């Protein structure tokens, strides 16, 4: 009986530790946002002056990502944070 109580409280303690302290959700969300930003660069590369050999196919995706364009422009205009995030993922030499 005493072991069961101890096991229960250990489980509760681990639950709250994971809920409050664990930051894996933020790490996964940041990585997903970075991948999404990179994909948006591929889609809108012609508008940025970067030649894209697949522009015929990527232009069909613009209606699906058009509503996300203003937020993406704001994130890309803040070059310090973009470079800092990229260097944080790759690491400094």
List descriptors.
7 helices; 77% helix; mainly alpha; 93 residues
CA radius of gyration is 21 Å
Largest sheet features: none
Number of strands: 0
Query: Which strand-content bin applies to the residues?
Result: under 5%
Low-confidence stretches: none
Q: Briefly note the structural class of the backbone.
A: mainly alpha
Per DSSP, the total helix count is: 7
Helix content: over 70%
**How many structural domains are formed by the residues?**
1
Q: Calculate the terminal CA-CA distance, rounded to whole Å.
A: 56 Å
Shape: elongated
Can you characterise this structure?
The protein is mainly α. The chain has one domain (2-90). The protein is 77% helix and 0% strand. The protein contains 7 helices and no strands. The chain has helices spanning 2-20, 24-43, 45-48, 55-58, 62-65, 69-77, 79-90. The longest helix is centred in the middle third of the chain and has 20 residues, at 24-43. The model has no long low-confidence stretch (mean pLDDT 78).
Detail the topology: elements first, then pairings.
Blueprint: H1 2-20, H2 24-43, H3 45-48, H4 55-58, H5 62-65, H6 69-77, H7 79-90
Short description:
By secondary structure, the chain is mostly helical. Helices cover 77% and strands 0% of the residues.
């Amino acid at each position: 009986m005493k072991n069961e109580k101890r096991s229960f409280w250990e489980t509760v303690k681990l639950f709250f530790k994971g809920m409050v302290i664990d930051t894996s959700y933020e790490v996964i969300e940041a990585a997903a946002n970075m991948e999404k930003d990179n994909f948006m660069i591929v889609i809108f590369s012609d508008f940025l002056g970067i030649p894209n050999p697949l522009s015929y196919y990527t232009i069909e995706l613009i209606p699906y990502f058009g509503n996300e364009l203003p937020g993406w422009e704001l994130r890309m205009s803040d070059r310090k944070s973009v470079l800092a995030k990229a260097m944080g993922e790759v690491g400094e030499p």
